[in-house]
Amino acid sequence: MPEYLGLDTSNYTTSCAVFDTEKNVLRQEKMLLPVKTGEAGLRQSDAVFHHVKQLPEIMEKLLPGKLCSLAAIGVSVKPRNMEGSYMPCFLCGQTMAKGIAAATGAKLYETSHQTGHILAALYSANKLSLIEKPFIAFHVSGGTTDCLLCRPSDDTLIDIKEIGSSLDLKAGQAVDRVGLMLGLRFPCGRELEKLAEKSERKWKIKPVIKNGNCCLSGLENQCRKLISDGVSPEDTALYCLKTIEASIAAMTREALLKTGDVPVIYAGGVMSDKLIRNGLEAEFGAFFAEPEFSCDNAAGTALYAAIMNGGMQIEHTDNITA
Length: 322
What we know:
Elements: E1 3-9, E2 13-20, E3 25-32, H1 44-62, E4 70-78, H2 90-104, E5 107-112, H3 113-124, E6 135-140, E7 145-153, E8 157-164, H4 171-181, H5 189-196, E9 209-210, E10 213-214, H6 217-228, H7 233-259, E11 264-267, H8 274-284, E12 287-288, H9 291-294, H10 299-308
Parallel strand pairs: 1-4, 4-5, 6-11, 11-12
Antiparallel strand pairs: 1-2, 2-3, 6-7, 7-8, 9-10
Helix pairs in contact: 1-2, 3-10, 4-6, 4-7, 5-7, 6-7, 7-8
């Protein structure tokens, strides 16, 4: 049976996915990189070390003795499809993918972490057919807060042009820094969301937007002041998430003014937050990835391999099951 392997070794997660085109089923395994309590992330050398240890473990769970059935492999080799985009941790997945391709004869397709995120989000929302037309994608994570105009591309599948970003702190960084202030464990997204859900406070937020770009550095200082003023952890958590929601909403409005009425999809770990999602969904009717496909994952790279290798027809992809 034709199967497509996807690998992604980001600065947060080791992940592996297999897409079976015959059964239209996608399976994935992933492990967070271990971060010491109180620390906000890993050095690249440490991330590489943990990926090298974790990759074989998750692949054994997902592909016990089945490498011979692979038609192609997709792997993220850099953060974005742009010149100079580089991060050492992606070498782990790239090296593994090249070795498997050499041993099995499977074709190898290299892409970016960002492209993988977008494809996984489209897959999760049953909207992979959007890659055949222009659409807006938000990639909101620890390293990015980007508004992207996406168009079809023969070479890279999706041509991605940034039309908005954060001018300073990224949304995921803000979440983690505020979470650490509140004594949460990194990465802090899920615990911060749980705290915020307990708050009933109504915050009035005025986001800082400059030419379609947001500024989030003030959010960290504002939350620090709230904590020092005795505001509850629950209310502080909600203020943080509502500020991010308001910022993304303002960026979306400005992007739609530039591009016209095109579909909008939200991807990236921050977009798995239900509080942020509910507000944006209500205003824009946009599409969202489910949490397991919104956080870092290899689903998108497996799909990339299948599409680029001709193993799936786009018009038949909007009813694939996970």
